[in-house]
Every structure is written in structure tokens, then in C-alpha cells.
């Protein structure tokens, strides 16, 4: 039984194989073997489309050629995945409607529209699938598509300019900002020295503060040359007076003594005392411009001489009254002499230090009146000669002990004359710096140098890093940071070249 069953199964398998063979032969008769191969091709065989975010849609045309009639064609578009698998574009491509049938040998035009609206920068790979019937045989054609998208030109340009700006700020700071900060710190320190220095004349201290205030104002305005000049003047003045403090104390003591010798009150001699005080104030007020303390001493001695002369004049006026009172004249006889003494007193009251002619006239009138009054003194009384003479029997009129005016001894110090400032010596042999055309040419050269270097270097970086990079922005940090760094190096290169050319003598500072 078993062998018989195996024989029947074997018979059925053989019959099935024969039937399949017959069917295959019949099918081959209807469709040649070449029909199973690919019957359509695309020209071009693939698409590469480059665009920028925000650009309008782009159109591409594909020509599909087939050796057999094509019918029932339909298009499928895959998703487009960025090469780093970090982003995907869905439906970036639209296909125009296709004809129902295309005869053999005639091309099928495939109009492809690519949109960059909903995408991120980068390179995306995808495909267009064309499914069709080739003379009744279902077939398909795959067309590879690569889409590259980059950021619009505005942000990269801003990044490049930002790099240039950052480097320019640093160059500006190194060239002027650091100098400005250093100068501001030095001004602050010098102001602290002025505050802590004791014994400086008030006028000098005020002048120093004015210099430093002007220097600080120039610094705030960015005019460093003017600020440096004011600072130098303040530093020179302070240094000079710190070396003069001991000598100035002696002069100051003499000035204070001279000021106390005359008090401009209503009962005293207001006019002359006020004039002397004005002269002393002028001496103290001129101290910031003094180059030699000997000049101050000479002026002070002149004022002391006038004070001594005035005190002597006032004392002689008192002595005239004393001599008149000692005479034996009757009141009526004293009247004319008293009128002269009173008139001289009124002249003294309105006398001014600068009026030397009036002083000499009053002095001459007093000398004459003094001689006249002494002849009217009583005779025969014991006498002491004037101004400390020997005593003895009176051979003439009775002597009157006249008062001696207080006197201020003049100063006889000798202060060393300061050496000429080295900066002044150098400035004396310099050529004038006010050369407007030279300044204009120098400024023009610097501007042209800046524009040429920044344009050439900056454009090179922009072209290499942005224009030649079809996927700029896909790696946001790397792309923009590189462009920023390029802009920074362009300005740094310009600053370095400018500094080098200056050292080589290709440009000159004033």
C-alpha cells in the first residue's frame, strides 16, 4: 500500500510541473523577455536643488523617456531627511498633473516645484517615485533628489560685521580706551595727592583742582590729548610746590605778619590797609603761575617797604600832634597848625599804596611842619636829643620824645632757581604740529586702509564661509561662530598691520 501511495503523489507533482511549464511558455509568447526590464528612464537621472530660506519656490523639469507606451502614471514623493538625521521635510515637492497616456518614444514631462518655506538649513535626501503601466506591465522609476538649504544672507553678514565690531572695539580700547582709563585713574590719584598735601597755598590747590576737573571733562569727551595736557600741567604744578613747601612757609609767615600790621577798619586807615591787603592777596593768588620763589619774595619785600613807609607816616603824624601840644602857643595860635595836621591826617586816610606821588607830598609837608613846630617849643628845659641822643642842658627848644613806628624786616632769603622743564626744552625745538593738510592726508590714509583691509578680508571670509557653503546654518553654532571669528580676525589683522606700518614709519603720529 505504501509504495502505491507514493507513486500517485509523484504522478500529481509531475503533472503540476508540466502545467506550469506550458503556462510559462504561453506567457513568454505574449510578452518578450525584455518587457520585464526597466522600460523608462529620467533625464536628468537625479535632481540637486539649492536654495535659501525664504526664497520663492523653484521649478525643475524631468523628461521621462520609455520604449513602450506609458499609462496610468502617478508620482509619490518620499520624506526628505537631513544627512545628520536631525531634521525632516514633509511634502517639499509638488508635481504638476500627468497625462493619462504617453505613446512610446515620446517623453513624459515631469514638472517639479520645490518649496523652501517649511524647512531648516541643511542637506536633505529623498526620492521621487514614478509608478506607471508599461504596455500593461506595472513598473516604477526612482529619481533621487537632494535639496540643500542655507540661511538667508542677512544674519551671516551681521555675524561677520559683529566680529569686525568686537575686534574694532578692542582695538579702539587698546588704542584709546585703555589710554583713557589709565589717564582717568592717574587723574584720580593725582586728585587724592592734592587733597592729602598739606601746606599748599589755597590758590595753588584751587588751580590744581581746576586743571584736574578740566582733564576729567576732556576724558569724558574723548579728547585725550587735551586731557593729557591738563594733567601734565597739574602734575608739574604739584611737583613744583611740593618741593617749595618749606620755603613757602617762611614766605607765608611774612605775608601773615604783613597782613596783621594794618587792619582796614573804620577807625583805622581803611583805604591804605585795604590796598595792602589787595596786594598781598594778589601775591598769594599768583602763586600757581610763579616759576621762581625769588619773584614772590621781591614782590613781598616791595609791599613790606610800603607798609613800613605808611606806618612811619602815621607815626610822624602822631608826633606832629605831640609836638604841637608841647608848644606854649595859645589855642588861637595853634589853630593854623592844627588845621595843617588835620589836613595831613585826612590825606593819610585816603592814601593808596600805589600813589607814591601823594606819599612823597605828605612826607615833605610833614618834614616842613615838623621843623616849624620844633622852633616853637619852650626853651631852657632839660632835653633829650631825638631818637636816643645823650641828655644835657637845653641850649635850644625843649625836645619831645617822638614815637618810632613798628617796622617789618624784609626777607633776605635766596631760593634756587628751577631748571627749565625738559618738556618745554623739547617743545621749543619741535616743528609746529598745526599742519591741517598733513592731518587730513593722514586721516584719509587711515580710513582708506581700514576700508580696503576690511572689505578684502571680510569679503573673502563671507565668500568662503557663506556663499560657498550651500548648507550654511545647518550647524548653527559652528557656522556663525566661524563667521564671527573671521570678522574678528579681519579687524585684528588690520590693527596689527596698522601698528606694524606705524613702527616701520609708514604712518606718523603728530
Low-confidence stretches: 1-6, 15-37, 381-395, 421-435, 502-510
Largest sheet: 7 strands, mixed
Overall pLDDT metric: 77
What's the order of the H and E elements?
Answer: HEEEEEEEEEEEHHHHHHHEEHHH
**Strand residue percentage:** 5-15%
**Radius of gyration over all CA atoms, rounded:** 57 Å
Structural class: alpha+beta
Topology overview:
Layout: H1 2-30, E1 40-43, E2 47-52, E3 58-66, E4 70-77, E5 80-82, E6 88-89, E7 93-95, E8 101-102, E9 108-114, E10 122-134, E11 137-150, H2 154-196, H3 202-221, H4 224-261, H5 270-285, H6 293-326, H7 331-349, H8 356-374, E12 383-384, E13 391-392, H9 422-429, H10 436-467, H11 476-503
Parallel strand pairs: 2-11
Antiparallel strand pairs: 1-3, 3-9, 4-8, 4-10, 5-6, 5-10, 7-9, 10-11, 12-13
Helix pairs in contact: 2-3, 2-4, 2-10, 2-11, 3-4, 4-6, 5-6, 6-7, 6-8, 7-8, 10-11
Detailed description of the structure:
The chain is rod-shaped, with a radius of gyration of 57 Å. By secondary structure, it is an alpha+beta fold. A hairpin with a 5-residue loop joins strand 5 and strand 6. It contains eleven helices and 13 strands. The strands form three sheets. Strands 2, 4, 5, 6, 8, 10 and 11 form a seven-stranded mixed β-sheet that branches. A four-stranded antiparallel β-sheet has the order 1-3-9-7, with no helix packed on it.
Amino acid at each position: 500500500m505504501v509504495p502505491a501511495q507514493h507513486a500517485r503523489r509523484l504522478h500529481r507533482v509531475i503533472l503540476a510541473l508540466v502545467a506550469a511549464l506550458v503556462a510559462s511558455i504561453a506567457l513568454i509568447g505574449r510578452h518578450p523577455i525584455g518587457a520585464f526590464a526597466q522600460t523608462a528612464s529620467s533625464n536628468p537621472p537625479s535632481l540637486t536643488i539649492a536654495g535659501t530660506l525664504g526664497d520663492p519656490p523653484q521649478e525643475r523639469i524631468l523628461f521621462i523617456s520609455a520604449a513602450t507606451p506609458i499609462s496610468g502614471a502617478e508620482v509619490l514623493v518620499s520624506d526628505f531627511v537631513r544627512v545628520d538625521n536631525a531634521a525632516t521635510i514633509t511634502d517639499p515637492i509638488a508635481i504638476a498633473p500627468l497625462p493619462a497616456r504617453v505613446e512610446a518614444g515620446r517623453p513624459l514631462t515631469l514638472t517639479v516645484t520645490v518649496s523652501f518655506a517649511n524647512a531648516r538649513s541643511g542637506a536633505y535626501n529623498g526620492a521621487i517615485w514614478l509608478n506607471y503601466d508599461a504596455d500593461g506591465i506595472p513598473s516604477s522609476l526612482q529619481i533621487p533628489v537632494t535639496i540643500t538649504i542655507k540661511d538667508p544672507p542677512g544674519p551671516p553678514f551681521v555675524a561677520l560685521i559683529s566680529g569686525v565690531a568686537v575686534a574694532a572695539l578692542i582695538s579702539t580700547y587698546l588704542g584709546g580706551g585703555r589710554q583713557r582709563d589709565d589717564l582717568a585713574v592717574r587723574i584720580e590719584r593725582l586728585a587724592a595727592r592734592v587733597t592729602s598735601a598739606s601746606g599748599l597755598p589755597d590758590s595753588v590747590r584751587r588751580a590744581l583742582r581746576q586743571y584736574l576737573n578740566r582733564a576729567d571733562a576732556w576724558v569724558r569727551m574723548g579728547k585725550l590729548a587735551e586731557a593729557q595736557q591738563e594733567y601734565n600741567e597739574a602734575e608739574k604744578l604739584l611737583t613744583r610746590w611740593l618741593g617749595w613747601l618749606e620755603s613757602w612757609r617762611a614766605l607765608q609767615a611774612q605775608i601773615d605778619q604783613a597782613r596783621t600790621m594794618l587792619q582796614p577798619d573804620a577807625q583805622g586807615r581803611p583805604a591804605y590797609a585795604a590796598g595792602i591787603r589787595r596786594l598781598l592777596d594778589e601775591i598769594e593768588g599768583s602763586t600757581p603761575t610763579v616759576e621762581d620763589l625769588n619773584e614772590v619774595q621781591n614782590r613781598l619785600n616791595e609791599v613790606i617797604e610800603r607798609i613800613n613807609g605808611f606806618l612811619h607816616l602815621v607815626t610822624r603824624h602822631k608826633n606832629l600832634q605831640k609836638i604841637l601840644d608841647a608848644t606854649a602857643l595859645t589855642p588861637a595860635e595853634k589853630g593854623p597848625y592844627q588845621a595843617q595836621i588835620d589836613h595831613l591826617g585826612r590825606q593819610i586816610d585816603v592814601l593808596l599804596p600805589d600813589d607814591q606821588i601823594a606819599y612823597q607830598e605828605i612826607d615833605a609837608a610833614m618834614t616842613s611842619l615838623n621843623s616849624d613846630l620844633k622852633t616853637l617849643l619852650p626853651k631852657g628845659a632839660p632835653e633829650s636829643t631825638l631818637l636816643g641822643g645823650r641828655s644835657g642842658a637845653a641850649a635850644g627848644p625843649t625836645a619831645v620824645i617822638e614815637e618810632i613806628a613798628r617796622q617789618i624786616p624784609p626777607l633776605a632769603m635766596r631760593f634756587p632757581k628751577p631748571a627749565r622743564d625738559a618738556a618745554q626744552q623739547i617743545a621749543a625745538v619741535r616743528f609746529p604740529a598745526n599742519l591741517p593738510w598733513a592731518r587730513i592726508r593722514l586721516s584719509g590714509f587711515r580710513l582708506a586702509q581700514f576700508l580696503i583691509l576690511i572689505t578684502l578680508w571680510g569679503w573673502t571670509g563671507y565668500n568662503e564661509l557663506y556663499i560657498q557653503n550651500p548648507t550654511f546654518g545647518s550647524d548653527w553654532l559652528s557656522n556663525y561662530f566661524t563667521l564671527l571669528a573671521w570678522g574678528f580676525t579681519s579687524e585684528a589683522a588690520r590693527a596689527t598691520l596698522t601698528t606694524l606700518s606705524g613702527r616701520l614709519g609708514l604712518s606718523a603720529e603728530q
